[in-house]
## 1
Amino acid sequence: MSSKPVICIGAALVDELFHATEELLLATTTDATVTKTSGGVARNIAHQLALLDVPVQLITVLGNDGDGDWIKQVCGAAGVALDATITKDGLSGKYTGILKPDGSLFTAFLTNAANHLITPKHLEANRDLLLTASYLLADANISIETGEWLVRFSRETGIPFILEPVSVPPARKFKNSDLQGLYLVTPNEDELPVLCHGQSSMISHQIEELFNRGVQHIWLHNGKNGSAMYTQEKVVTLHAPNIEVVDCTGAGDGSLSGFLLGKHLGWADLDCMRLAHSLSAEILQVNGAIATHLNQETLLSRVDHYFPKA
């Protein structure tokens, strides 16, 4: 088990989720319930890891407003260290999601996010902190320059770097990037093609392109159909547990948190994936992006529930 922190780099936002209670119709009023939580992909993963007793640092950008103070408070209470986080003048970033009655996303808005302030210069200034990491993880909300700096830093230091695509628009930025030595990228079926500059619509060709560009592991998420971990040598597939979905927010972030907990514990990829799918299933059954009802011990006990040993 590693005592080194996972360092998460990217977005921290206020999440406002409007959950429609009836069918959404355009250009009219729909009844909804609303929840406010702290979000952002990198922040969600950092928060979940901290709740699972994995040491974690978050490098993000917050405003010097009430929302920024609140997010700092939430992170601190969870055990997330913010040693290299940037505080800017002005408003903190906000994610406003509109959810259908079944909990799936209808549309969303992102405002005031300032991830461009996480520059290579800022990371270079915090090199000593980065050198303490067991894993580096960034969401694709960071700039291309910052992503490529992290890939180079990972190559130089041997510290594995993981890129989480987030969604199609931020993922698309990296289609021509130098990914030589990238430890892991975690796309779904929409994000995989936009990470590639080739025109093929075949998943096998897209996977091959990423391998040729130097990516070591590609973890392809297929929602309710489970996921597949591709390496040059083999493919490991795993089904998703059959559950009743309450809210889809944060399921992908939780999956990566579960995988990193497995790596922290020294587990092999398949066991890490079982842990990932178990945590994702737990998050899908609650409102919000974080499984606050779980600690490491309770999550580990849930793995046998979702994936009984033969």
## 2
Amino acid sequence: MARRVVVLGGGTAGTLTANRLRRAVGDETEILVVDRDDRHLYQPGLLFVPFGMAPPARLVRSRARQFLSGIEFHQAGVDRVDLEEKRVALDDGETIAYDVLVVATGARLAPEETEGLTGPGWGRTVHTFYSLDGAAALAGAMARFEGGRLVVNLVDLPIKCPVAPLEFCFLTDWFLSRRGLRNRVQLTYVTSLDGAFTKATCNRELSGLLRRKGIEVVTEFATGEVDGDGGRLVSYDGREVPFDLAVVVPLHEGAEYVGRSEGLGDPLGFVPTDEQLQAKAWPGVFVVGDATDLRASKAGSVAHFEGEVLVHNVRRYLDGETPDARFDGHTNCFIESGFSRALLIDFNDTLDPVTGRFPGPVGLPLLKESRLNHVGKLAFEHLYWHVLLPGRDIPFVGTEMPIAGKRPGEGDRRPELIGGGR
């Protein structure tokens, strides 16, 4: 009987993992992907929707059509996983047995966890761009906004794409300037962090950008309530930040079924995961992308870099061998800074973002605004659909973070990582 790998989740991580596995094992292993719908969303594009730079319909394609031939797609929600029996119970009543399980169900928005966030102001004076419907509604609000206090609020980590809230600030500065409204708007970034970003070297660069663009920063603000009617963010320590329009990045949690699957997840619904990308709860269960509790950034590049490690270790497990490949936390991100410019950062578990070039001595500039990085950010959409999702390698970009072309400086090696839990 053929061995079966069941992949829960057909988003970025699940799709590229299934396709990489298919390329690696061919017909010798059955691969089945489960997801509740057939709508694959290009999530990096959500940032551009509120500014009229990306039509929402362009960001969505069929999940089933992203899988290589030979991969089975089952459209259903997951009710729970029985780790003892190695079975997945689906919400359509079907039960699926597995030899290897890959958890790739990502992170979900939990706006209901913040008092008032989904209250009377939701969708009117309070918005988010972290969902397709939210980004589309925010586009209308941004087009109608003529002045006042605009606040961007990061409630707390972990979130998908930790740089996106800052990118939204920078693009808002550009958008309002283009409309001739910038001098009529007080733009404020409110964050639970003690600085603009968690990485020291990157924080210095991004904090400087915020200052130069006249964007106020309120730090260590633990949002306890969003008062949409009264136009206030209220922190647990009683501080208030007034707004006319609030753009909030809600708390994130793992998939709901994780909490119903005994021994699988932590209290937030993320799956405790080791460096071999294997769940700590049980052998034969692997985790990839935003579903892990790893302190690596919850970004698409991480899922890509994890893919090669995971496929290697799954093959070893299926062959009765010990998984031995380790993920080093490699992450890179384009940071859109407005006015057709962007930065690029590249780091891993031990090396913070540094200056230099990526992926080698000749390449894109690191930690520096440039038009070339902006072009790279826009070009990534094509790369996403035609290289990353199909499970292909990106030329000159390997799993481990490249050192060539980088210029580490004093204080760049640090233990803390982006995306830590609250």
## 3
Amino acid sequence: MSAMRGRVPEDTAPMNGVDQAEATLLQSLVATQDASPATIFILGAPRTGSTLLYQALCSRFSLPYIANLTNDHFARTPAVGLAIQKAVPVRIRYASQYGKTDGPFQPSEGSAVMTRWFGGGHPSALVSARILEGMEPHFLATLTAAEALFGAPLVIKNAWNCFRVRYLAKALPSARFIWIRRDAADAAKSDLAARYRTKGSAREWNSATPGNIEELRRIPPAAQVVENQHEFNIAVAGGLNHHAEGRWREVWYEDFCGDPDTVLADLGAFLERPTVQGASAVEIGRAGDVDLPAEDGEAIDRYLAEHAERFSADRHPGRMRAEGKWNS
């Protein structure tokens, strides 16, 4: 057992009853583990289907996750929330709205928990790419305790982690990563539609932000959302290729929607997890349907066409072949 992984964090702030309960829980659970936690991180730019994959992965392989209850009420002491989750069997529902789920025990993005460990702010690619000073022991102990509690690695789905791959891969040498991608045209259109719906403005950013956000703010919204997808993809690809070799898999949203069982079977083999008997079938929603003004969609298509070579890696190969733009 590594000294860092096995170290139960110390907190100099006054402890209340929940803090004490977590300290006791961490102490007992961490002591039972002999290996680094094999936490599973789902990485994906906004509007790429990461929530659907998250739900499917946890349901199909009975993997633990940060539930809304834990995120909303135990962000400071997530191990306590996870222990409560363990006592309440839940059937995961395939429903969400812009990454948010409804119900105390449904999978959460874990934003409050992750902010406790990594902070926030923008551009998040620069200011929130590493663990906060003094928080690594609590982070590692919590992931270790979760694995001991459930007998399976915790799954974390949070877009901000796309800019943390270097740190995560180094701090967690047994962690594995699943990168879900989506054709940039569809993802960008969905992202712009989400801005209108959730922010009331085409210029208000959703989720994490790339390091060049101030530069991107100066271009039209249709170009912004395309460039945002591109920046996320560069960050994830660079992090995985340079720091997590052999520990990641790529999934295209289009392929997952087309044949979820085959994609999940491949991921199950990668994660070495058996399918749970009686797991519910994946429920695919209206993939690709977005409520977006026609002129915005046309502007996104035009921007992609004008910079086709630069964005070629952000397009789904099958989609490009169908459009006659991909030769191999």
